[in-house]
Specification:
Number of domains: 1
Number of helices: 0
Order of helices and strands: EEEEEEEE
Largest sheet: 4 strands, antiparallel
CATH architecture: Sandwich
Helix content: under 10%
CATH class: Mainly Beta
């Protein structure tokens, strides 16, 4: 798995209360979209670091196949706080019988 691109079509100037769409282009290779969970992790950023504070998680949905093994995912952030806001993409394996998504230590960040 590889995160190829993350985009914010609206740009980086967001109005309080606005919904913002975030798109991620992800190379899954032989994996299917139902075998992964793509999370959009977001929240305000601390003044003295790049650490996301009060992190919220939004599960991104598949937005279509771009090419063989490459998919686009879409998620929405509701901006309900002022200040500097950050986001990151996290990919985890998924299977309905997998007890803990983190137990396999297979997380990809981007």
């Amino acid at each position: 798995m590889k995160i190829l691109d993350v985009s914010l079509p609206q740009g980086d100037q967001i109005t309080l209360g606005q919904d913002v769409e975030v798109f991620a282009t992800i190379q899954l290779g032989a994996l299917r979209t139902d075998e992964v969970v793509v999370d959009l992790c977001h929240g305000t950023v601390a003044d003295d670091s790049e650490k996301i504070m009060n992190r919220k998680i939004t599960v991104m949905q598949s937005d279509g196949k771009i090419s063989e093994g490459v998919w686009r995912f879409k998620g929405t952030i509701h901006c309900d706080e002022t200040g500097i806001y950050g986001y990151s993409i996290r990919i985890l394996p998924f299977h309905p019988y997998l007890f803990n998504l983190y137990s396999m230590s297979l997380v990809t960040w981007g």
